[in-house]
């Protein structure tokens, strides 16, 4: 993992605070037409054309402990699509009043004192197949054996240096990329363009 750094699993990353109105952010992406997501800071395209799924899929069942080679699990979201995560996801993690999954599609997680943790991260993340991302670099990823985890907050940088997304790619976790609704914007496709990006029809 490039430039892996262990983050405090209970405190959040700068810029990872929940949106003031997550429902309004989710409504912005509610379109039946394919859209491209771009960095809100510099305008660089971060994805090819993606279509919205009606609901967040369940993570595929995957016996990672039986895999011959270490690597990501099968992606939660199929190529060419995105979904909206309506539940809190990512950092900060806080002590939970009732034990349960730390965040959607994850198991339980505890702090060093053995207290169960739960995500108090943002809602409204745009969840996509990590293989559909473009121009992102992993930085400040929380420690893991063979991939990135969402426990330390935003860990994907645009080419301009802005943290725009959280990658989850460790072998025992769901394979997902969460674009931050506060750091990206949607670009409608040009209806006259046959191709929006290399090899990807509009």
Provide key terms for this protein.
single chain, 202 residues, mainly beta, 7-stranded mixed beta sheet, two-stranded antiparallel sheet, globular, disordered N terminus, disordered C terminus
Please render the helix and strand layout as text.
Elements: H1 22-28, E1 35-39, E2 51-52, E3 81-85, E4 93-95, E5 117-119, E6 125-128, E7 137-138, E8 156-157, E9 163-168, E10 176-179, E11 184-188, E12 195-197, E13 200-201
Parallel strand pairs: 2-3
Antiparallel strand pairs: 1-11, 3-6, 4-5, 6-10, 7-8, 8-9, 9-10, 12-13
Plain-language structure description:
It contains 1 helix and 13 strands, in the order αβββββββββββββ. By secondary structure, the chain is mainly beta. The chain has a 7-stranded mixed sheet with strand order 2-3-6-10-9-8-7, with no helix packed on it. A two-stranded antiparallel sheet has the order 1-11. A two-stranded antiparallel ribbon has the order 4-5. Strand 12 and strand 13 (200-201) form a beta hairpin. The chain is globular, with a radius of gyration of 16 Å. Mean pLDDT is 82; it is low at 1-20 and 191-202.
Could you give a short description of this structure?
It contains one helix and 13 strands. It is mainly beta and 202 residues long.
Low-confidence stretches: 1-20, 191-202
Helix content: under 10%
Summarize the helix and strand pattern as letters.
HEEEEEEEEEEEEE
Report strand order across the widest sheet.
2-3-6-10-9-8-7
Query: How many E-type strands?
Result: 13
The chain-level structural class is mainly beta
SS summary, helix count: 1
Strand proportion, as a percent range, falls in 15-25%
The dominant shape is globular
Q: Main beta sheet: strand number and arrangement?
A: 7 strands, mixed
Radius of gyration over C-alpha positions, nearest whole angstrom: 16 Å
**Could you tell me how far the N terminus lies from the C terminus, measured between alpha carbons in angstroms?**
33 Å
Mean pLDDT: 82
């Amino acid at each position: 993992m490039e430039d892996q750094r262990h983050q405090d699993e209970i405190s959040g990353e700068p810029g990872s605070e929940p949106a003031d109105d997550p429902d309004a952010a989710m409504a912005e992406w509610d379109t039946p037409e394919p859209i491209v997501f771009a960095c809100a800071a510099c305008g660089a395209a971060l994805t090819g054309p993606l279509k919205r799924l009606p609901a967040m899929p369940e993570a595929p069942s995957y016996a990672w402990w039986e895999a011959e080679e270490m690597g990501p699990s099968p992606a939660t979201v199929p190529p060419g699509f995105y979904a909206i995560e309506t539940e809190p996801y990512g950092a900060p993690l806080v002590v939970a009043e009732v034990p349960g999954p730390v965040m959607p599609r994850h198991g339980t997680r505890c702090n060093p004192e053995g207290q169960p943790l739960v995500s108090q991260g943002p809602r409204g993340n745009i969840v996509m197949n990590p293989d559909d991302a473009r121009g992102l670099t992993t930085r400040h990823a929380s420690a893991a054996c063979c991939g990135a985890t969402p426990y330390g907050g935003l860990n994907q940088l645009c080419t301009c240096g802005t943290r725009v997304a959280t990658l989850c790619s460790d072998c025992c976790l769901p394979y997902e990329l969460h674009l931050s609704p506060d750091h990206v914007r949607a670009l409608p496709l040009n209806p006259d363009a046959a191709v929006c990006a290399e090899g990807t029809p509009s």
